[in-house]
């Protein structure tokens, strides 16, 4: 069990490193945007090479934006579509138009990454995965499990996986004490069977914030955390959101 927890801890560190790397890549894009802006400002009719350099920067930015956007799309987040602006006529004006569009795109992309649920709500072994499973109450039939269960002891901390707004905090049938957090693009996370709730409805929460504590309330056989990710109201496998890869 110790090695399993250690492995999960290492995976979480890797995930955090991946997210940091992604944000660093966006930072590099910002720097490239600034270089592009400077190049555009210096363009004259006699400085075609500067204009070509600016367009080269824009081409590189476009490729990197596509790569980052693919990370988001794989996790059900709507990407921001962008079309190339035709460079007919005044190439400086055309380049500035492209730059302005990508600058806006990049700003929204940064917001998307920071608000996307990623990582573990707590570091522990899985006790039940997403999908069909045997009924834990021993009725001999199978049932669909819409999330992942994390092993834990009553009172262990539970943290939210992305910034958002607490949509619900209270008792919710089989979920027992439950917290639902609304994120961007129709994404919602749910944390169930809590022994204590540390947030209130309507509260703005940040990634990694303590939202409750592990318990065994509701339809539960032992203390654990039930974690769900829902996309447009439909439960999806939370494993898709535990890592960028």
Automatic annotation (TrEMBL):
SUPFAM superfamilies: Duplicated hybrid motif
Chain segments annotated as coiled-coil in the UniProt record: 5-32
Gene3D superfamilies in the record: Glucose Permease (Domain IIA)
Molecular functions (GO terms): metalloendopeptidase activity
Name assigned to this protein: M23 family metallopeptidase
PANTHER family, per database record: MUREIN HYDROLASE ACTIVATOR ENVC, PEPTIDASE-RELATED
Annotated ranges, domain M23ase beta-sheet core: 144-238
